[in-house]
Design brief:
The complex is a heterodimer of chains A (311) and B (160).
Chain A: E1 4-7, H1 11-24, E2 28-31, H2 34-40, E3 46-50, H3 51-56, H4 59-68, E4 72-76, H5 84-90, E5 95-97, H6 101-116, E6 136-139, H7 146-161, H8 165-184, E7 212-217, E8 221-228, H9 235-242, H10 262-269, E9 272-278, E10 282-290, E11 304-309
Parallel strand pairs in A: 1-2, 1-3, 3-4, 4-5, 9-11
Antiparallel strand pairs in A: 5-11, 6-7, 7-8, 8-10, 9-10
Chain B: E1 9-14, E2 17-24, H1 30-35, E3 41-52, H2 54-69, E4 73-77, H3 81-89, E5 98-99, E6 101-107, E7 114-120, H4 121-129, E8 135-137, E9 144-147, H5 151-154
Parallel strand pairs in B: 2-3, 3-4, 4-5
Antiparallel strand pairs in B: 1-2, 6-7, 6-9, 8-9
Classes of the chains: A alpha/beta (311), B alpha/beta (160).
């Protein structure tokens, strides 16, 4: 099991993270600074770094050295500022945990375990994030405009759950944007690279073009998963889209294709956005909404982000 | 046109005042609406907007741009939270429009009530200038309900 370093300047948070990781994954070494972490890196080490330390220290050196040894860096901190997305883009980071310690107790060990297992493609998607036995709903559009009918059905089902209007709106937006991307940004022919097809005309989708939407909820999480059969989304594209949230002067893309805002909007609507990327075979995007938060309560400006890449 | 292709937003017009409601998405065709508005001052009430997706944002931005080009002096009133979130994400989603009032999330610690309440821009800006968040009486127990989001994030659109 790859070793873990916790890098946090606040000893109380450092210890809390250490307990979360030790109880849910394995032993963790506690450190105060990025410089100390650089000195402790062993092959395969995963460094869990506090946001303040990441913004103040030489994060680039830690990322470089950790990856050189087959390890990685996970940013971690409650209520991260939107500038965190600059770090994510500039250092090609794949994991950011911005939930509080209670939620991180679920999230961090799971991320470490998926990484340690070598990849996410064990046939498990949205089930991984829901309590055992939580009912799942599934929809598969057979035409491009089939998305609209599916969204109407999802909204009706969400309303019947009795969740808050805000959670319902966020869930519908995540389903809408992820499904639209899966339908319109997947290659129309095998082996082609394709982004942003014209969205006006309704056309049938071939069996391979049909994405699958699944969603479910338990007492604490509402999870929406969209899976396509192409796998043409990559980490760099994800990071570039999310970085738009840092620059408010971003303009919607003109024309009849996508507006180029969907991924960022789905991200801001989620508590956690997870991508399972299998290049050439599958893209699975999962938006998680924490139902335990107050319907109108404060959420982090930067939701958690996880990009798992199967190679 | 199937039922799922039908526009899902509503527009009511009375003189120089318009009310836009429902869902703004690829079916909205707000550009068509912009062509019917020429010059002068218009007030647009956005209280009943319930949803906007990425294609809706593009349509909305084009709508604002068309009105600005036509020389329309636009005031937005009672902006729904979903619209404020987009204005906070993209400067162009506000454009040059004046925001007279908008909804913001509040929560009451006394009774647990949570919901959206109307905020008047001219009243909230002096508070924000001194680093204070607005408060409002809880509609259920009349105790003071607190603003339930990040001040520097939710009111970002006012600084644009």
């Amino acid at each position: 099991m790859p070793p873990v370093l916790v890098v946090h300047g606040d000893r109380k948070t450092q210890r809390a993270l250490g307990r979360v990781i030790t109880s849910g994954y394995g032993p963790a070494m506690l450190l105060d600074t990025i410089e100390a972490a650089c000195a402790e890196l062993a092959p395969g080490t995963v460094a869990v770094v506090g946001l303040a330390e990441a913004m103040a220290g030489d994060l680039g050196a830690l990322v470089r050295d950790a990856r050189a040894g087959g390890g990685d860096v996970i940013l971690c901190g409650e209520q991260g500022p939107v500038e965190v997305l600059k770090l994510v883009r500039d250092h090609a980071l794949t994991h950011v945990v911005t939930t509080d310690a209670v939620a991180a107790a679920d999230e961090l060990p799971l991320v470490l375990r998926i990484r340690a297992s070598g990849g996410p493609l064990d046939g498990v998607g949205v089930e991984r994030y829901l309590a055992h036995g939580a009912p799942l709903h599934q929809h598969v559009p057979i035409s491009t405009h089939g998305r609209l009918g599916i969204l109407a059905a999802v909204r009706d089902d969400l309303a019947s759950l009795g969740i808050s209007a805000r959670h319902e709106r966020h869930a519908a937006l995540i389903a809408d944007e992820l499904l639209a991307n899966a339908i319109h940004d997947a290659p129309s022919r095998a082996g082609t690279v394709h982004r942003g097809s014209v969205r006006d005309p309704d056309r049938p989708l071939s069996a391979r073009e049909r994405p699958r939407l699944r969603w479910g909820a338990d007492g604490r999480t509402l999870a929406i998963e969209v899976t396509d059969q192409f796998g043409n989304l990559d980490g760099e594209t994800i990071r570039a889209h999310l970085a738009k949230l840092v620059d408010r002067s971003t303009k919607p893309r003109e024309g009849n294709g996508g507006a180029g805002l969907g991924l960022a909007m789905a991200y801001t609507a989620a508590s956690q956005l997870v991508f399972h990327l299998c290049p050439g075979r599958m893209t699975q995007a999962i938006g998680l909404i924490d139902l335990r938060s107050r319907p109108d309560g404060v959420r982090s400006a930067v939701p958690s982000l996880h990009v798992f890449i199967e190679t | 046109m199937t039922s799922s292709d039908a526009p899902t937003f509503t527009l009511t017009r009375a003189g120089d005042r318009l009310e836009l409601g429902g869902r703004i998405d690829e079916r909205s065709q707000l550009a068509d609406l912009a062509r019917t508005i020429t010059g002068g001052a218009i007030t647009l009430d956005l209280a009943a907007v319930t949803y906007i997706n990425s294609l809706g944002v593009r349509d909305w931005v084009s709508f604002l741009r068309a009105l600005a080009t036509a020389g329309v002096d636009l005031t937005l009133e009672r902006c729904a939270e979903v619209m404020i979130l987009q204005m906070n994400m993209i400067v162009d989603a506000r454009g040059s429009a004046r925001i007279a009032s908008f909804f913001a999330p509040f929560a009451c610690d006394a009774c647990g009530w949570e919901g959206s309440q109307l905020v008047v821009t001219d009243q909230v800006q002096p508070l924000l200038a001194v680093g204070r968040a607005p408060e409002t009486p809880c509609p259920e127990c009349q105790q003071q309900a607190r603003f339930a989001d990040f001040v520097d994030r939710y009111f970002l659109f006012l600084s644009a």
